[in-house]
Amino acid sequence: MTPDFHEKPFRRALLVASALLCAAGQVQAQSHVPYPSKPIRFVVPFAAGGALDYVARVLGAEITRQSRAQVIVDNRPGASGILAAENVRGSAPDGYSVLITNMESHVNNLGLFKSLPYDPVRDFQPVGLIASAAAILVGNAAMPPSSLAQFVAYARADKGGVSFGTWGNGTYSHIAIATLGRIDRFAVVTVPYKGESPVVQDLLGGNLSFAMASVLVAKAQTDKGAMKAYAVNGDRRLALMPTVPTFKELGYTDPVLNMRPWFAAYAPAGTPKAVVERINTLLRDALRDPSVASSLSDKGFEPIGSSPAEHQRELARQIQTFTKVMHDIGIRPE
């Protein structure tokens, strides 16, 4: 028999082709695996019991009810949201690790730290805005001012600077009051705390004069007569506190005072577009549920539910706005 000198190369080619077809079949099979097919992890940069944790758990429970996919809330507090962001950044880009965070990890931290271990834009894929949270300028009930105009006059007269409790350096409460002081030309002595609860305790105890408060805190304490509310951020009044005017209607045009801090969802960079869109759909469907919308509204949150592209544009705008504002009010990255 005449030897076939092409037999071995042909066999090798056949084996390679078979392997490629097998691999392609596996990839195709994997691509048709429905999402979600296993538990989804919502990574939250704050301890259990806080506002963001509450939002994540309400949404997770509704997503589980609607899709039958289990959602696990993984609380990873500390380092201004860096620990949680780093955890998700290093996770597989498969849609099963989702960062549920506020503006601090992806906007404020850029003005606070010279070197972040992650890039908020390059290392993450925006999934969408979830909700916004109003903040109200309040004072201890014993303080003389009863309106924002009176507050500004009082602050200008205090040459030593009014004491103002913040939720921490570089947080929205810090940036907002410093912005107001810059606009109205009064000195502010900011006292940073670790979150809102200790601020409220010292404000009620008379150790602080003024602060920014969440809606639930402000409503509860003003109803008791323990606090006075002067103005709320955002472009419209709150349904829960309709008598409190907005900064905007009082003539303030600064974007910091006319926006409300938001909560958003992010997946690791490289997550397939179809998976990102599916997560977005799960979140938006949950936010549309009347019981979820009511649960959030009753706590002072305003459901949003934007698309990934809409949030990507919003994120770019806020990074540009807040990095400039933080520099203007004297916050320097360390």
UniProtKB/TrEMBL annotation:
<dbReference type="InterPro" id="IPR005064">
    <property type="entry name" value="BUG"/>
</dbReference>
<protein>
    <submittedName>
        <fullName>Tripartite-type tricarboxylate transporter, receptor component TctC</fullName>
    </submittedName>
</protein>
<comment type="similarity">
    <text>Belongs to the UPF0065 (bug) family.</text>
</comment>
<keyword id="KW-0732">Signal</keyword>
<feature type="region of interest" description="Disordered">
    <location>
        <begin position="293"/>
        <end position="313"/>
    </location>
</feature>
<keyword id="KW-0675">Receptor</keyword>
<feature type="signal peptide">
    <location>
        <begin position="1"/>
        <end position="29"/>
    </location>
</feature>
<dbReference type="Pfam" id="PF03401">
    <property type="entry name" value="TctC"/>
</dbReference>
<dbReference type="InterPro" id="IPR042100">
    <property type="entry name" value="Bug_dom1"/>
</dbReference>
